[in-house]
Amino acid sequence: xxxxxxxxxxxxxxxxxxxxxxxxxxxxxxxxxxxxxxxxxxxxxxxxxxxxxxxxxxxxxxxxxxxxxxxxxxxxxxxxxxxxxxxxxxxxxxxxxxxxxxxxxxxxxxxxxxxxxxxxxxxxxxxxxxxxxxxxxxxxxxxxxxxxxxxxxxxxxxxxxxxxxxxxxxxxxxxxxxxxxxxxxxxxxxxxxxxxxxxxxxxxxxxxxxxxxxxxxxxxxxxxxxxxxxxxxxxxxxxxxxxxxxxxxxxxxxxxxxxxxxxxxxxxxxxxxxxxxxxxxxxxxxxxxxxxxxxxxxxxxxxxxxxxxxxxxxxxxxxxxxxxxxxxxxxxxxxxxxxxxxxxxxxxxx
Length: 350
Description:
Rossmann fold
């Protein structure tokens, strides 16, 4: 893929779990001319800067010429506007993502996830950025919590930006994730810490299911979506369904010996659902499915007002009308423990 070669790229939330992986992949494999890492967390920026400097120690000049760390908040439009000057592509990963934090601080979630999204759109239009890819969540589907509701509204803003961008070249599209294994917002770091402390490992309900994807799959989806985005779409990677109890048991089996415990030492405690938490997740609604396309690797939700997207050609997606119904975790068959273990081993989690 040469889409990113010699391009100037901005990654918001660039020191978060996904943001960092995007930066690593871009620098290792895609030869961009510039990567700007925009984040509000100065400590994580410092730590990431040291990691990159160590990795590129034998070619430090190339690193220093291409990488810029920018301290800033997506709530700050003026700062964001300066960060976006001469940028070709934006990967917008900055967000408040913890369900309970957003539930207790709902307007803070609105400020970052909604108003911050509009700031991204405005600065992208002002600077005539070529492509803007927003990383959303399956919690945006029939949202039962504040975080999901803000993600849904952010998706709507992204799609609508294609209607009023005028003559600018900007293409605005969204990518909808399930749970990314090992990311800071996922349950795996919590389970890992509980195992390290010899338990108990707390799960909400043994029948709860979630769509799960590895970090490498998440990065792949973002890049693949960037390549085929024409404007207004929501891209959804086809990902396996995982039973939460199975995930906990695989993690205990794999991690307990590493922390000096035996599998039998660590108990599992059922604590019930938290406010705003669903027993299952959905990748799209029935209404969205009715206007979606399907590829072997992903679903593509087309915008409702498709006629407002000039020059959108659905034949370029290499997709068919949607046939699969495996977009509700309640109705899909979960993968088995061996398959979970394979994914966790591949990403170095166990």
